[in-house]
Amino acid sequence: MEYEIIGDNLQLAILHLNGGETVYAEAGVMNHMTNNIDMHAKAKGGLLKGFKRMIGGESFFVTEFTAQSDGYVAFGGNVPGKIEPIKISPGNDFMGQRDAFLCAESSVDMDIAFTKKLGAGFFGGEGLVLQKYSGEGTVFIHACGDFVIKDLEPGEVLKVDTGSVVGFEASVGYDIARAGGIKTSLFGGEGIFLTTLTGPGKIIIQSLSINNLAAALTPHLPLGNTGSSGSGGLSIGGLLGDK
User: Fold this and answer.
1) Whole-angstrom Cα distance, residue 159 to residue 239?
2) DSSP assignment of 65-104, as one string?
3) What DSSP character marks residue 156?
4) DSSP assigned state of 63
5) pLDDT tens, residue by residue, 151-205
6) What is the pTM for the complete model shown?
7) Domains of the chain
8) What is the Cα–Cα distance from 227 to 89, expressed in whole angstroms?
């Protein structure tokens, strides 16, 4: 399999498959494909793996794509952001935030992993459950915003805004720390805790999380459905026209 990633902040991953090759993807992310690609839904790994995927923020079923001859299939995310290919090899697992999975070669296994420390799970912003990619091959992950990718040295620590960690190699330590003193925590605007990542290993950070994007857009969303604009706001009915 060969691939290319096109676009800037509304990217597509285009996977070029040889005849007989199979990839799988989160349900609903296929954008376009050649006519010689067979597509079918599958509870990959059985019932248990399907339920685990749901816990990890994905759908119970995945969609498999098999090339009958040389062809390609393109996948895209559901929010403005980036797609990053991650090379997986035996003993080199990668952890991703919930809902990060986009697509992968059939030889890559997607499972879930629980954060080792309850505090990191509750207050680290990524939750108690992370996605875990293992096996051998390439997995493509997607998240909101632009990506900052770093390779941490052994013992190197990076503090990150909670919810902004897209993923990290399994060798990276994941925990939380207080965001300064009490006054800084309460009034500094960064929250009470920060996520800490300790090397060695590769990490991916996003410039804008989906939660922060939603919070920024909420004050500007139309309110009400009466069609009245007397308060200066727009309504869905006013935008679409009352029928």
Assistant:
1) 43
2) EEESSSEEEEEE-SSSEEEEEEEEBTTB-EEE-TT-EEEE
3) -
4) E
5) 999 999 999 988 899 999 999 998 887 665 554 444 444 456 788 999 999 999 9
6) 0.78
7) 2-216 (3.60.160.10)
8) 56
